[in-house]
Amino acid sequence: MSSTRRQFLSWLPAMPLLSNPAFVFSQEPSAQELRIADAIRQYSAQGYHRTGTAVDTVSGAWLSDRIQDLGIPAFMDPIELDRVEVLYASFEFNGRQVDAVPLYDCHYTDVNGITGTLGPLGSDAELGVVMLPPTTSSLIHSQLDEIRRSNQHRAIVIVSDASYPADGIATLNAEDFATPIGPPTLQIANEHWNELQEAMANRTEATVVAFCERKESKAYNVSTRIDGTDPDLAPIVVMTPRSGWWRCASERGGGIAVFMEIIQALLEEPPARDVIFTANSGHELGHLGLDLMLHANPALANDAAIWIHLGANFAATNTQVRLQYSSQAVKQRSAAHLRRSALSPDIETPIESRPLGEARNIFDAQGQFLSILGSNPLFHHPDDRWPDAVDLVKTVKWANAIKNIVLELSRA
Q: Hey, what CATH class is 82-215 in?
């Protein structure tokens, strides 16, 4: 282990293997089940996985060392960025001060903030307010984006949907991180929603403070590869995002655990094709890490035989698992394995539609992909943490199915 990695990993608490797995398994767990559980547990325990933070760096070193413990080299590939440093963020109304998280792709206030009248998003109020549903594909999200770009309000307040727990903030990804848009925008929990609705009706004055600065920072993609026996075959790429807003146990932990399971399986059953692995930071910042990886390897999106995208939320409790395919052939091949595992997706993205998550980057480049992700009642919420947010038994079943698909594809 390098001295740098040793320094990073000194931040982590001791993480023994699960001593009491019975609370998540109905019978004695296998070694694989314990590995998956322990990977998600450790990832969740590390803290808030925001890109370019100390936790993000520590988590990258941790993942890199887990790969190297399997006997192959791993690399921490640097990403230069101007990280948003939140100096002070607050929403004040009716004499009440409410904790807030600013958007990471808007413009910001000075330390005094902006004071104005409250009203619904799209009204003539100076401060527009909206409660957002958890799905990012909703019409309200589109309206918000349009209003942000028009600078219709001096500032905006986004309230987490009523379906979320009352005391946590469900944050939005920063799709325009590189080129911020719109007025200062705060995100708050829904616990004061009733009072806030009354304040909007009365055009009450309120103050938005989003005092932030951009700070030079560094994040890391974690990568490795397993060489195949036939270098003339096009490679497979296995990718998973590894950053996010909070602890992200079910959002990101499942992808990281399955990522490791695929590496171990291919080391035990060597592939014919080269298999490239990339775990990317910058997910919540418009897929920053993947974009840079593709920029450094411009032919890979299209030239790879297939990309396996281990996306968000398929490990979540009460998830609806979604599969996304680049072609009917990929779908049919996947379906054969799923039948043997007695699994089927709850949702499938139409093949001709632009997919969700990092698979969209490969779709845009006309590459081949298989993508797994899911719904999550705690999506982007601080309560997405181990163990309650994770359906471990279901995660293990999907891990085996995806692993077996990759094993077959690696030999083709």
A: alpha beta
